[in-house]
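Need residues for this backbone.
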């Protein structure tokens, strides 16, 4: 195979995760290439219904639980996020992801770039800071003045944290857009090339 084509295919596959699902008009929709990945194809095949409603429900669950663009990513605790997603999707409250759904979700998470993982870590840290702020108790403190100073310091950090987190989210979203655009141009180049196989 042409070495140049191989490297460009690798770039395309490396960015594929961002194009597995798209969220529009309040629905999670799979991209055509999603079914090229075995674990998602297995989920698709096991849903024998005509409308593929089970597959779409499971795909939505995976997206909302694992995608950095998900509206549920503010819930850094996975159990809380699971509960919120199940409720929002109108799923049976006792529903749990089975082994195949977990495998697909693990795969989806495993191919995210470092920027998405850093964003997840930043959200986790901001959430921990929120928890810490709620623990500051002036009355029960041995040193109420120090506790008040700690509270005041945390309050001063809020605007910077909110702005920093928003900038991080915007940066990741922009990276997603740019990688999708790059993928589109690479895809076109690949099919325009003469293939020496």
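Answer:
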């Amino acid at each position: 195979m042409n070495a140049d084509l191989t490297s460009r295919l690798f770039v395309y596959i490396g960015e594929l995760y961002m194009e597995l699902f798209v969220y529009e008009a309040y629905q999670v929709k799979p991209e055509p290439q999603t079914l090229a990945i075995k674990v998602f194809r297995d989920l698709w095949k096991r849903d024998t219904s005509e409308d593929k409603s089970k597959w779409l429900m499971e795909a939505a669950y995976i997206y909302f639980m694992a995608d950095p663009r998900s509206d549920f990513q503010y819930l850094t605790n996975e159990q809380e996020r699971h509960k919120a997603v199940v409720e929002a999707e109108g799923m049976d409250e006792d529903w749990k992801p089975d082994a195949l759904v977990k495998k697909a979700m693990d795969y989806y998470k495993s191919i995210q770039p470092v920027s998405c993982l850093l964003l997840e870590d930043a959200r986790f840290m901001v959430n921990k800071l929120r928890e810490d702020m709620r623990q500051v108790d002036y009355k029960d403190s041995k040193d109420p003045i120090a506790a008040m100073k700690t509270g005041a310091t945390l309050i001063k950090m809020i605007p910077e944290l909110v702005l920093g987190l928003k900038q991080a989210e915007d940066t990741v979203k922009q990276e997603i857009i740019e990688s999708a655009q790059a993928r589109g141009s690479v895809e076109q180049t690949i099919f325009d090339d003469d293939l020496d196989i």
